[in-house]
Structure formats: structure tokens, C-alpha cells
Amino acid sequence: xxxxxxxxxxxxxxxxxxxxxxxxxxxxxxxxxxxxxxxxxxxxxxxxxxxxxxxxxxxxxxxxxxxxxxxxxxxxxxxxxxxxxxxxxxxxxxxxxxxxxxxxxxxxxxxxxxxxxxxxxxxxxxxxxxxxxxxxxxxxxxxxxxxxxxxxxxxxxxxxxxxxxxxxxxxxxxxxxxxxxxxxxxxxxxxxxxxxxxxxxxxxxxxxxxxxxxxxxxxxxxxxxxxxxxxxxxxxxxxxxxxxxxxxxx
Amino acid sequence: xxxxxxxxxxxxxxxxxxxxxxxxxxxxxxxxxxxxxxxxxxxxxxxxxxxxxxxxxxxxxxxxxxxxxxxxxxxxxxxxxxxxxxxxxxxxxxxxxxxxxxxxxxxxxxxxxxxxxxxxxxxxxxxxxxxxxxxxxxxxxxxxxxxxxxxxxxxxxxxxxxxxxxxxxxxxxxxxxxxxxxxxxxxxxxxxxxxxxxxxxxxxxxxxxxxxxxxxxxxxxxxxxxxxxxxxxxxxxxxxxxxxxxxxxxxxxxxxxxxxxxxxxxxxxxxxxxxxxxxxxxxxxx
Lengths: 250, 286
Prior knowledge:
The structure holds two protein chains of two kinds.
Chain A: E1 2-11, E2 19-29, E3 34-39, H1 45-53, E4 60-65, E5 68-69, H2 75-78, E6 82-85, H3 99-107, H4 121-132, H5 151-162, E7 169-173, H6 181-197, E8 201-205, H7 209-214, E9 218-223, E10 226-231, H8 233-238, H9 241-249
Parallel strand pairs in A: 3-8, 3-9, 6-7, 7-8
Antiparallel strand pairs in A: 1-2, 1-4, 4-5, 9-10
Helix pairs in contact in A: 5-6
Chain B: H1 2-13, H2 15-27, H3 35-51, H4 56-80, H5 85-104, E1 108-110, E2 119-120, E3 125-126, H6 128-148, H7 150-160, H8 162-167, H9 172-198, E4 200-202, H10 210-223, H11 232-255, H12 263-285
Antiparallel strand pairs in B: 1-4, 2-3
């Protein structure tokens, strides 16, 4: 599904602040994989995610989605393959647009945005049906501005929006880092349901060891720009939160 | 009373400019001051074409195309060369001054006894009120429809969150260029209407004109501050009302005997007052 071949990324090259974020990293992600990624700050987790999403372009190496070379494809074009959930709940939604308008844009992720009015009654009804599944009462105020909602609600909506259009890959960058424990639990459950129902290939960076263990079928530990451990589903079941924390303390 | 009617007419003629500034400043979140140049271009092209026997409708369309080009250039400089939008605007505005002078071939051009959209000197009739009003209404309806279309939603989201629009398959740079193009074509439309209204075009007519648009947008904000709804449609109407109020306040200032040489100073103080007014109320409410 996703093949990453020998990618390297160095920031501030040639200056005193030079940082080698990724050092010739290779990774093969199979279709339907739900990979959780843990690692120290600065270990290259976010850089890896940003390289897959196209927000960053690697210095060397290649990235393929199903044999399509996307290495040089900018992020707004790569979004035809990828849905993203950001660490900042405000980043994945537009504050001054209504819930409905945000969903309209999400429904057109892989399509062109024309001058036609797509916010029709049938579209509204289908979105309201989806909003109902959240049990947040948002189906009663689909024209409320996104900016009036809480971070947890916005993150949950971003998840729903990620599968409004044809979706194959979901990238989650610490999706619950800015949320309270209750909202975090709701968002994680929703994320798992969406990934399972849509048979998505997902990559989630997280600092919550429990989530890293409980979710997904593969666990990657990153250190200094490289994958240090890559646990398959069976191996992953054998380790627990304490093992992870011990690894961090070495 | 004639005095205030003129102010209302001017306000309506400036509605397009106000709506243009609303698009760039409020929707796209870009401070664009190409305005001074694109407004003059609209006026100069209209003056030149009318004098040379073109139909006023063609003159208006040509003006709007020229304005759109100016906006597209500013947008391209801003996005491709990563230049601050204010600087990109200043560069284009500066260049336009010479281009405008070259088009007209002289610093000003009176339009005496020439038929235009607003006036028919031959039969001594003046349809300014109805035409200017109709222009404003049509603009509000068209812009409202555009901003609700799929492309319009993308444009509005671009001013909100670039990370979001990129993840939705929208190229924010393209949206900014389109938005600035539309914004400046509206500005040029105002220049064209004003020239037809006042009966002459002048190379310096655009100096400091951006402040009129800013003032109108800010008055619009004040008008809607306590409104229950912030629908786009209402915001557009508020901007047009802002344009009219802005002109009426200036007219009132002149009417009570303030030296017209101080017009720009009054304008600056007026805009500053509107900003201050907005801030004071805001903090006392919070």
C-alpha cells in the first residue's frame, strides 16, 4: 500500500542548527495496517507523517502509494489518497464555516470544487444522519459555526469528515494530545471504528502508551530518525505499557 | 439634500470596492492594497474608452478585466515568490501608476457630453440612483451565491485554515490568486462607476482609496456586532451600508464647513474612530 524507500530529511542543512530528522528510513505499510508510532520528541515521527502526507518533501528516497510514485506530489494533490487528523483540533476544520460547509468540502476531497451549490437538501440530510451517530446533538445545529464547538467535537467531526469522500489512507498525528481524557476516549473509539469499517490503512503517532498498545495491529518505535523496533500484531500483543515505558527510559 | 444624495450615490459606487476589500481582508485574510492601482486602472480605462467612442458596457467589462489582472499579478507575486501581500500589493500598485498614465496619455480626462451608463447628457437625464442601486443589489446576490458554491466554500476555508484546505485537496495558492483577482476586478468596477459618475478620470484618483473600503468593511462589522446571525448575505449588505455611511459621514463633515483640503485627514481619523469604537465596546462586554 505505502512503500517508503530510503528517505532522508535534514532540516536547516549547512547551518549550525542542522538536524537530521530521518536517516535513510525504509518502511513498508500493508493494506489494512493500523500502525501506532511511538518515540521520543525529535525522533522523526511527525517528520515521517509529514513526508507521507506531502507537507514535506524528502531530500532523498522515494515514497510510493500502490506503485504510484508520490515523492514529489504536493500535499494538496496527495490528499486525493490521504485523509489527515491533526494534533491541533483547529487545524483540520475551518472555524468560520458551518459544520455543513466543512462537510461539503470534505465530500469533495478528491474532486474539483466548482461553482455549483452542493449544499443541497439531500446532502444535508445525509450529513445529519452521520452527525447523529456521534451522539453529540450536532445534527440539530448543522449550520453552527465550527469555531463554536469544543476541541473534542471538532476532532470527532474531522474523523467523520475524513471518510466523507473515497478514503484509503488515514494519518493521525497525536489526535488526542489536546483533548481531555473523556473526549480523547471518544475520539479514539471513533477513529478505530472508522478505520475498521472503511478498511483503511492508518498510521497514528501517539504519546499515550496505552493507545499505542490497545489500538492497531502493528507498533513502530522510532529513535533518532530510524525505526528501532517494528512489532507485528502477534509481537505487539506480547508487550505492555510498562515495556514501552522501560524502552523510553533506557 | 442634493449634497447627501451625492454621498449616497458615491457610497453605492464604492459598494463594489467595499465588497472587494471584504473578500480580500475578511474572507481571505489578506491585507491587499493593490486597490489604489486597480481602482485607478478601472477609472482610467473607462475614461479612455468612453472618449474614444466605446460603449460604456464594454468599458466597464474591460475595466474589470484589467482589475482582475492586477489582482492575479499581486496574488502570483505573493504566493509564488512568498512575498508579504502588502509588499506584493505595493509593487503592483506602483507599477500600475505608470501603466495608467500610459493608457490615458495625460494626467486627467474630462468626459463632457459623453453618454455613459449613469448619464445621458444628450437628453439631460440622470439614472445614477437606479443604476448604482441595481449594481449593488446584483453584486450582493452574485457574491453571496459565489461564496456558497463549492469553490466559494474552498475560498472561505483558505482564509481560515490552510492546513485544512490542503488536506481537502484544495491548492490554497490558487484560491488566493482567484480571490485577489475577483477582489481587484470589483475595485476596478468602482473606479469605472466613479469616473462615469463624476465625469472625469484622473491619474491620482486612487490615492488612499483603499481606506474607503477598509472603513466600509469595519462599519459593516460594527453594524453586525450585536446581530444574532452572521450570515454571509448579511455581512455583504452590511459592507454596502458601510460604504454609504462612510460617504455620508464625510459629506456631513464637509457640510459643517471643514476645509476640503483636510478630507484625507478626516478620512483617516474616521477610520481610526471606527476601529477604536469597535475595540472599546468589545472589551467592556467581555
